[in-house]
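ARCHIVE RECORD
Type: protein–small molecule complex
Small molecule: alpha-D-glucopyranose
Source of inputs: curated submission
Record status: active
Notes field left blank by submitter.
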Amino acid sequence: MRSWSVILALFIATGIFAQETPIYLDVTAPVEERIEDALSRMTVEEKVAMCHAQSKFSSAGVPRLGIPENWMTDGPHGIRPEVFWNEWDQAGWTNDSCVAFPALTCLAATWNPDMAYLYGKSIGEEARYRNKNVLLGPGVNIYRTPLNGRNFEYMGEDPYLASKMVVPYVQGVQSNGVAACVKHFALNNQETNRHTVNVHVDDRALYEIYLPAFRAAVQEGNAWAIMGAYNLYKNQHACHNRYLLNDILRKEWNYNGVVISDWGGAYDTYESAYNGLDMEFGTGTDGLTDARTSEYDAYHLARPYLKLIKNGDIPIENLDNKVRNILRLVFRTTMSANRPYGTFGSPEHFDAARKIAQEGIVLLKNEENILPIGLDGKKRIAVIGENAIRMMTVGGGSSSLKAKHEILPLDGIKAAVGNKAEVTFARGYVGKISVGYNGVDTGQAIEDNREKDTLIAEACRIAEMSDIVIFVGGLNKEIHQDCEGLDRYDFQLPYAQNELLDALSKVNENIVVVLVSGNAVEMPWVDNVKSIMQAWYCGSEAGNAIADILFGKVNPSGKLPFSFARKLDDYGAHALDAYPGDRDVYYKEGIFVGYRWLEKNKTKPLFPFGHGLSYTIFKYGKPVFSSRELSSSDSIVVSVPIRNTGGMKGKETVQLYIGDKKSTLPRPLKELKAFRKIELQPGEEKNVDFKISVADLMFFDDVRHAWTYETGKFVVYIGASSEDIKYSTEITLK
Ligand code: GLC
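STRUCTURE (tokenized, with ligand):
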């Protein structure tokens, strides 16, 4: 055969047999083209099936077209164990014990965006390895009251800190081809009446306090998923809320990810169709319909929705727009090109958990430099308190985990001490003991029915004969003690811990308090102890990280992400009797949340926002300003010299706050506008540079519904906390 006929024959052969790859399957094709191609091939039933759960944590793909299912997993601190198809309880698999990372309040307390990225990347690798394509976290609801049961899952009281810490977490998770699902959007700031409470908040507080972290996650972090909250806003459930989802998320922020309901957060079919919900999960379907083949058919966005589409009540475009968002999730995750493979339970992840904990633990007080505890001279160390031996990775609600291991504080202390000192333990107090959560057992047998006085007497005997006492107490994720669904009843430490501490301080003056908790607590004993450490819930490596700080292997560098007020009524929500409300809750304090409230009322906190001590000393030099004037087009650079004048390397977070001296609308005395964490060797000096631009001076004008600024004078504060201001000066916005 002549050569041309061979070529022609080859062309025909390949042309006939080499099927064109459909665009939706072509990972090199633009996502939006893949979406339209997939959509054009789907039936109405297949489209509707994608919009609601098919099991407790999954929704349908399109098996006929090879489009995978969507698999969600809790939570913000680690990958939840596999559950039964339609249950909350774990299924008892033997390959799904995870790394428990520190609670997100601990991450916020690192004030280190690099830690947030490390966290997101690590937990994203765990989710990826477990073949989940949506991680149901992080939570960024603002800390309005210290009684909120879920504050430990969130990032504190300040919108700027939360905004800066949530973005790298989202980017880290999504670098694994797993969507971060930022929650709970929005105004879920209490657990009391969480399914029914209708939140009233003025637009300035909404835009300046409660939305910024979500907005940053969407606009800077490019979050691929958002979870609606349970509560109502303007009398509409947040999971199908036209103000939050249509007007703000979609129109103002140009969000193009998916909106997922909280589990059981969808209550109305029409609102679910028209008010921005894409994927409905966890709906309680009793009474919705009796003709169900499975209760998932009874979801609002299941049969009821299909019927309304089919009879023309709701246009197919409404459904197509939801499916476009869901397909975009699929092409960003399970069907994306060169998607990583993840890792699970790896040494690197345990190291990451420990590192984040080390950087997040906050040293609140350290009189006579009692910490770090030296291990020379065979000291007698008394460890007292139930939280030294109690697991914290199980319980507290949906963030509960089945961890591969959890190093408890007593274990960590003993491991660090070895035979260099003598460690004795006394229970001291006994809290409520749950043995498990959702079928995950702690495996601990720490019930103890001795009387309070017996426990205190035993603890005092141990304390009396010791050189130093390490008290490990706090809260414990039991109901009403840092737990989803159930806020705390009061600001106190529970289980007579205050009485125990009073007794201990009478027999030993060298007391170090280690608080394991996710919220502030009242500290009537604050003057009777020499040192206080806020140790959060640090997950699998908790005991090691706490010991690393106690014995000086690591120099503490955490800073408080929320204020520790002296008493509950010092918080705005309580001073104004604006919590928990009933059917309605009114955020009467407006923008004055946390230190914004305390400073407005000249109320000294016990430990201020941004506070955290170090074992070394940082000396702040006189900042150098590039100018004292800025305009809407040019900015000011501030250079702050910081020197480590102590004998130990350490990290310091330099904070920059700005206050508007004169404004037509009320504004806080000052607000956090920049921070930078730096490490300095002993004797080393570095300059920390900040840029101040007009954006840092703006406020939300609720009348014009726009961010704006007013020219005039502002005060710049440079400090080591919101109270510990080293330097302040005026600048002028022309
Ligand atoms: C829970 C929580 C949410 C969690 C979801 C799935 O009720 O509010 O944070 O991700 O349901 O467990």
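CURATOR ANNOTATION: Confidence is low (pLDDT under 50) at residues 287-291.
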